[in-house]
Amino acid sequence: MLNNYIKENFSDIKQIKDVTPEVIQSFLNDKSQTCTQNTVNTYAQSLNKIAEICNKNYSSCKLEWKKEVVIPKSITQNSNLRGVKNQMPVEDLQRVCEYAKNNYSQSGQIVLCQQYLGIRVNELVTIKMENIDLKNDILHLKNCKGGKRIDRVIEPGLKTVLLETIEKNNITSGKIFSITENSVNTYLRRTEEKLGIIGRYSTHNIRSTISQLKYDKLRSEGLSIKESMREVSLWLNHGEDRERLLLESYIRCW
Q1: pLDDT score of 149
Q2: Exposure string (b/e) for 16-48, b if CB count within 10 Å is 16 or more?
Q3: For the chain, domain boundaries
Q4: Secondary structure (3-state) at 120
Q5: Do residues 144 and 119 touch, judged by C-beta distance below 8 A?
Q6: CATH topology of domain 80-254
Q7: Which of 73, 119, 150, 170 is disulfide-compatible with 141, CB 3.0–4.6 A?
């Protein structure tokens, strides 16, 4: 089965030693679309055994499939679209952000902030003036989930959003937003309806989309699957070794 998949999708590969982790990842990702989780796991285990045998018997083989490949989650394990399977499409996120730029509201400003920061909305709504270091362009977020602290670079676009919010609400101290997480999700739902966006996306779905974009950028820069997942996990404030959570709720690996 793997042989046929390679012939159809990677026709330039002629020898087992040339089968890279990316090829195996692509094969497993394909199987996760139609197979159960047990079947996907079985495929992965069998491929790891094949790699071990080839490495042991052929000096030209140095197959690192087990080290680099991540077992994807089967999409058949849940009937409802949620988690990573309900990422907000990038083009829809761009439309929502464009609407927010042209129609000022605190909820819209939070969505604009989230596209730069990727943090949880309940952390965004607690941002205070004292968290914003405009001199060094650093946002110091305190009391995040788990009592952790996060520092984020204030990019030019984010700086514009923060300054506009502060100015329009005449903020000199304390919180810069006076709304709740629920208000933001209500805003998002109504905006989707106005724009004719099909689907019901929450702020968590936006966080997933942003995580995917970050993962894709890391991979395109040459980082391995494992390295990219680790970086995204840390960026999300999840810590290391959270592959299962990432695959179920945030990113599609490749």
Answers
A1: 84
A2: beebbbebbbbbbbebbeebeeeebeebbeebb
A3: 2-77, 80-254
A4: coil
A5: yes
A6: hpI Integrase; Chain A (1.10.443)
A7: 150
Tokens encoding 115? 């596209």
Return the exposure string of 100-112: e unless at least 16 CB atoms fall within 10 Å of the residue's CB, then b. bbeeebbbbbbbb
Tell me, what's the pLDDT at 34?
Answer: 64
State which residues of the chain have pLDDT below 70.
Answer: 34, 75-84, 143, 239-241
Q: What is the separation of C-alpha 96 from the centre of its chain, rounded to a whole number of angstroms?
A: 18
Q: Mind listing the pLDDT tens digit for each residue in 12-53?
A: 888 888 888 888 988 888 887 767 777 888 888 888 889 889
- Distance between CA 98 and CA 163 in Å, rounded? 18
With CA atoms as reference, report the closest residue to 47 among 21, 73, 72.
21
DSSP lists the bridge partners of residue 251 as none
Burial of 196 (0-12, 13-18, 19+ CB in 10 A): exposed
